[in-house]
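As described in the Methods, two query proteins were run sequentially through the folding procedure within a single session, without resetting any intermediate state between them. The first query and its resulting structure tokens are shown here.
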Amino acid sequence: MVPVVRSLLETDLYKFTMWQALLHGHPNSHSEYEFVCRNAPSFPLAELVDEVNAQLDHLCLLSFNDDELAYLRSLRFMKSDFVDFLAVFRFQRKFIHARAEGGTLAITAAGPQVHVMGFEIFVLYIVNELYFRRFDQAAALAEGRERLLDKVAALKAFGMRPAPRHPFEFSDFGLRRRFSSAWHDEVVLRLTAEVPQYFKGTSNVYLAKRLGNVPIGTMAHEYMQSFQAFGVRLRDFQKAALEDWVQEYRGDLGIALTDVVGMDAFLADFDLYFAKLFDGLRHDSGDPKAWGEKALAHYAALRVDANTKRLVFSDGLDLETAFGLYRHFADRIMTGFGIGTNLTNDVGLTPLNIVMKLVRCNGQSVAKLSDSPGKTMCKDETFLAYLRQVFQHPAA
């Protein structure tokens, strides 16, 4: 077996930041996660089940080494007691199960949240790499290099145009759906070397450490969703999550995720207090221009200078889409772009659209009411209907 996972550090930064906040604020919570493939693969993913289980066995043997822990301690928002926790942490195999259900690959993780939340990113890139190992590697990499060459050329050409008020900046968000670790390395190395004026970092903490890049990330949906089950009034879960984040990070990691129950419901909770404390907002579903205009209108209504804030776009982006959004907004607010699959799995093959999402916390259902059709994930229709009613979110 050729291991897919090289290091426990090779996960997205926001896993560590959410992990720390939940360890400090809710160390006893219990959670359940489920793997889902949203598109049709070229062969049944159930064929991978034995290989996936072998890779999970390997993952659960790994621990953080002293050099990796020292790197995490060097990040000013990582606290000493959390890194001490990671020093003795190992994934527990009993908390995760992969099995074949017909042609479907079913993967579930359930247990104490601080012991199972970390599985997500590893599971996703394990499945991806095992899947794409079955295709012609040489042909895919040749095509990927041609496309990467075109991307670099497009970035250099874009830089010759008149600059708006704020610069164009993008980062790699492609760990979870990458073609392979070797290709991910090659992409990030090339972008770091050739377009450092635009390429500002990677969500992959392992690569950031290796290459001297900035690790990028703040929070994901699971952090906000967890607060639906943390004993606060459901109507107040977003405000409780944002407040806990502010108290944990005291001004660091100030980009808030907006689409757990839709942008309108988020802005209703994102009052002047939060608008001043957070550096900006992240888009992950719905029409990005409409979302950005709502954000700008909200800042204007609060009399907050939007030029001191940032909009981060991260929903299925490619460079051309990012360029268009940049031209639309960059004279009015700072922007940032997290590009994932189109950087790390643009090799001429159809990428998998896979996720591993939080579905229950502390014995009750949690959900995301996405602004994009197909992204809502919750099996409990009663809870979903109640959540829609509480936040006046239209049915998809």
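Immediately afterward, the second query was submitted; its sequence and tokens are:
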Amino acid sequence: MARLDGPRFGPRTGGPARQLVVLLHGLGADGSDLIALAPHWAEALPHAAFVAPDASEACDMGPYGRQWFSLQDRRPALMAAGARAAREGLEAFLEAELARLGLPGSALALAGFSQGCMMALFTGLRRATPPAAILGYSGALLAPEALAAEITGRPPVLLVHGEADDIVPVQATRMAESALREAGVPVEAIYRPGLAHGIDEAGLAAGLRTLQAGFGAAPDA
């Protein structure tokens, strides 16, 4: 399995990283898409390193971009199996990045958009050391029926979804919110009227608040 890699940003201070934020892109994109979020958050998290790995597979639904797993067949069991297979490479990448920066697993946060949200939730809730926070934008919770048996921690989770999303229906996040609450995971869910498949300023601001709280970072830390 090829080792993941992708664009990086920070820490803004230029000194050693105290936190690591890993940004997971959606279907048909790559790491350069989500690394653009890093400057928005780095002003308030100047000691955080950001990295947005390119998914391991070429997208099979178009001529460009990457995918974490195929969505040609969207039956829940097949998508869960795809995420489970992709998790192996992602876990190896997370461990390598933490080791490179000399950070413990508790200094990690995961943020994902669309298919990347699916991967962030699937991976983050199963890590031996739970991440400081998980941010999920416009995605879904895969394999909710397996969560009770497989969950290893209950990190704070932020879910944000546009109510006008015609790519991933907002109901996917409503179902994820319900399943996570049932599993005892602390969840904040924000539903944005009129927002399509994307991330707006309110979602970015909520993400920053969640990262700061998860890392225990003061506004200027």
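The CA atoms of residues 117 and 141 lie 8 Å apart. We note this only descriptively and draw no conclusion about the first query from it.
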